[in-house]
Structures are given as structure tokens and as C-alpha cells.
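Lab notebook page, bench 4
Experiment: in silico fold of construct C2
Operator: M.H.
Input chain length: 59 residues
Purpose: comparison with the prior construct
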Amino acid sequence: MEKEKFLKVYADTPLSLRKEIIAILDDEPVSWNVAYIEISNNTEKGKKILKKLKEMEII
């Protein structure tokens, strides 16, 4: 469910903003593009990113 919400928000995000940092995870910045790659590939990092974005009420 969170994945679908993320993909919808990502699709509505302007291309120029997708390089912007949206979260810090394990002391590393995560941009929209990095989040998209990790979440699309169903990685463990992607799951952590989804959890963080939900906590931050971005999705």
C-alpha cells in the first residue's frame, strides 16, 4: 500500500525536484530518485525508506 502511495506522489513530483533530498536514512541522504530505485526493486533499504516517508507523512 505504501509503495503505491509513493509511486503516485513520485509521479506527481516535477522532474527538477527528483534530485532533491527527501529523507536522511542511516546518516545518508535519500533523494526522490534513489528512493524510487530502492522501492521499485523491493530492497530492504526501500522498505526502510517507505517506513520513514510514512512517519514523515510524505506518503
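Observations: Residues 4 and 59 are 9 Å apart (CA to CA). The first helix runs from residue 2 to 12.
Next step: discuss at group meeting.
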